[in-house]
Design goal:
The chain is an alpha+beta fold. Helices cover about 55% and strands about 10% of the residues. Helix 4 runs antiparallel to helix 5, helix 4 runs parallel beside helix 6 and helix 5 crosses helix 7. The radius of gyration is 17 Å and the shape is globular.
């Protein structure tokens, strides 16, 4: 069975877990805090980032969430998540990059730094200005998602895809950390509520990061 080295609020691990669950691939979670600088983990991934997938029986180790997702897209036919025409698949990959890079850099990363790392690791107070900026940037990203959902059944087109998984993973972490204001974003909130009710998503909603508790609406599928 695959082992996923991750920590509860890693958005890239969440994306991979959603993909595996949608495809029916079994896995077990292995807790890994990248900031602990584990020598053993460094041998698995010299970059020192989660997620890492390892199959000890097959002696396969996979690193980088996009490479991992592509691996399972190529090896598991069930529930394709990079689907459609050539142009459609390009659009999926564009949006995955948007959420993995831009949304993460603008919103998820500063929230993790200010509300998780400073509390658990450096024992410093959060920077309120940086938090306000992240929440403002979140509004811009949600505006764009509202636009996409107004014009498509799913973010990248007519079918659920890896773009939806990538977006839901980032939003779920930002929402856990209190960085999402849903005011004025009914389209995206409705899309996200559908995601929260999926069997693949429910395990994520039940997980907690030690010391840090999410807002009361976090686990509510209608919240």
């Amino acid at each position: 069975m695959w082992r996923i080295y991750q920590f509860p609020l890693c958005p890239f691990s969440r994306k991979v877990r959603l993909l595996l669950s949608e495809k029916g691939v079994p896995y077990e979670l292995w807790r890994e805090n990248p900031w602990d600088d584990s020598e053993e983990f460094g041998h698995l991934n010299p970059a020192g980032r989660t997620p890492v997938l390892h199959d000890p029986d097959k002696k396969i180790t996979l690193c980088d969430s996009r490479a991992i997702c592509e691996y399972f897209e190529e090896t598991i036919e069930q529930a394709p998540m990079i689907n459609g025409t050539v142009a459609g698949r390009a659009e999926i990959r564009r949006l995955v990059a948007l959420f993995d890079e831009n949304f993460f850099g603008d919103v998820t990363s500063p929230l993790l730094q200010e509300r998780m790392m400073k509390r658990l690791v450096t024992r410093q107070p959060p920077d309120s200005q940086r938090l306000r900026t992240a929440m403002k940037m979140a509004h811009g990203h949600l505006d764009y998602m509202d636009f996409l959902i107004d014009n498509r059944p799913w973010l990248a087109g007519s079918r659920m895809s890896l773009a939806d998984l990538a977006a839901a993973a980032q939003i779920s972490v930002a929402d856990y950390l209190g960085g999402i204001d849903w005011t004025g974003h009914d389209q995206t909130r409705g899309w996200y509520s559908i995601f929260k009710s999926r069997p693949s998503f429910r395990p994520l909603l039940s997980e907690r990061m030690e010391v840090i508790q999410p807002p009361s609406h976090y686990s509510d599928v209608d919240g």
